[in-house]
Specification:
alpha/beta; abc type-2 transporter like fold; five-stranded mixed β-sheet; two-stranded antiparallel sheet
């Protein structure tokens, strides 16, 4: 029967094309692992919420004993030690930092929420304790506390981000339990006195990160789509370079004593312009369909510069793929196998969990930070979504440039060795 013969032929061809077979098997497996890892399908039911604590509390003196206390430190320890019910998993990963750094982490979604404890927090706690003690011997209604004895804890975050919505709800609950426990212990300590409302002294409010009140999820996703488009340049470059090899174009060009650098750097220039055009076109489309663009013309200029850097990184990656691909079809397959998963790994479509591998100058370095497109994405979000200037993206741009140079050098060496020198 003919269909059996055809089946045997196709099976033999499939087995012979080992790289194609690997792509068929590993591509869906990789997606399964990425989605499972990102959405908590790796065997752990609960995940800690990342929060930043900014502690401005100056402390206070306890009445009677003269003891110096800092209730903000106590609250921070409570947050650090809180766990899910019937579980060993902590509710929060707590980072104690400055307000400027906390706001930066919020913008990059390195943390879900920011807790700002005011300078007079301990004074308010002491005022509450003092008022409870005084009421034991006082007659009538206790008056409202003076304004300087009332403190407000701020829970700040991106109100369009689901991670903030969940985290601020849990934070509010844990803080409420902490205040209730303090009120109960204080009132028991003064012979069961009741009637002083701790909420008159300690309050909290939820505050949106400036500029995020009208944000949607698309406002955070749009820069990721730009990075995804830039990464797709990898496929086109890898396919184009491989096709040039197959057609013998490189052999003819070498007769003019062209060097590897001339070929690859010269080809990089037009592709860099394509990357710049992608940023402008995709930004225009995003604005038309509802992207809340920030920062004016300056942010567009910065975004184009950042996009060119990301484009050069993608072109360099295309060189590496072309150095090993046997033909343009295989180059296209390898380009897809590498570029699409990379777009997920840099957080283009959803926020990945933190995987800190080092710390440099007080800045935590994640595993994903080893990829230049991670810094390109963070820089685009900082300038387009939040309207940041050069000072807000300089750190990301410097890292993107350094990593891109490394990838370009690797691509130059490998392509020259495997595609040019081998033919001499």
């Amino acid at each position: 029967m003919r269909f059996i013969s055809i089946a045997k032929k196709d099976l033999k061809e499939l087995i012979r094309d080992r790289r194609g077979l690997m792509m068929i098997l590993l591509f869906p497996m990789f997606f399964m692992l990425v989605f499972g890892f990102a959405f908590g399908g790796m065997g752990q039911e609960n995940e800690p919420h990342n929060i930043a604590v900014v502690n401005y509390d100056t402390g206070a003196t306890m009445p009677g004993t003269g003891e110096q206390v800092n209730f903000a430190n106590n609250l921070t320890r409570v947050l650090q030690d809180s766990k899910y019910q019937n579980s060993d998993v902590y509710l929060f990963n707590v980072t104690q930092t400055t307000e400027a750094d906390a706001n930066k982490k919020l913008k990059n979604r390195d943390v879900d929420a920011e807790l700002i404890i005011p300078p007079n927090y301990s004074q308010s706690e002491v005022a509450f304790i003092t008022s409870t003690i005084q009421q034991q011997t006082a007659l009538g209604t206790v008056s409202a506390p003076p304004a300087n004895q009332t403190s407000t804890i701020i829970i700040r975050g991106d109100t369009s981000y689901i991670g903030f919505g969940v985290s601020q709800g849990i934070l509010t609950g844990v803080m409420g339990q902490y205040q209730d426990k303090m009120a109960t212990q204080t009132q028991k300590a003064v012979l069961g006195t009741s009637g002083v409302d701790v909420n008159s002294y300690i309050q909290s409010k939820v505050e949106g990160l400036p500029g995020t009140g009208a944000f949607t999820n698309f406002d955070f996703l749009a820069p990721g789509m730009i990075v995804f488009a830039i990464l797709l340049l990898t496929n086109t470059v890898a396919t184009g370079l491989t096709r040039e090899v197959d057609k013998g174009t490189l052999t003819r060009l070498k007769l003019s004593k062209m060097t590897s650098f001339d070929l690859l750097f010269g080809g990089m220039l037009p592709w860099s312009l394509i990357a710049a055009a992608q940023v402008i076109i995709l930004l225009a489309v995003a604005i038309l369909i509802g992207f809340n663009w920030q920062g004016g013309l300056n942010s567009i200029i910065l975004a184009v510069i950042v996009g060119i850097i990301g484009g050069i990184a993608s072109i360099s990656l295309g060189m590496i793929i072309a150095a090993f691909a046997r033909n343009d079809k295989q180059a296209s397959s390898l380009g897809t196998l590498i570029s699409v998963p990379l777009s997920f790994m840099v957080g283009a479509f959803f926020q990945l969990p933190q995987m800190t591998i080092a710390s440099l100058g007080g800045q935590s370095i994640q595993l994903y930070d080893l990829l230049p497109w991670t810094h390109v994405l963070n820089a685009l979000r900082s300038t387009l979504t939040y309207g940041g200037g050069w000072g807000d993206i300089s750190y990301q741009v410097v890292w993107a440039v350094l990593l891109t140079i490394i990838i370009f050098i690797i691509g130059l060496v490998l392509f020259s060795k495997n595609r040019l020198r081998a033919e001499n």
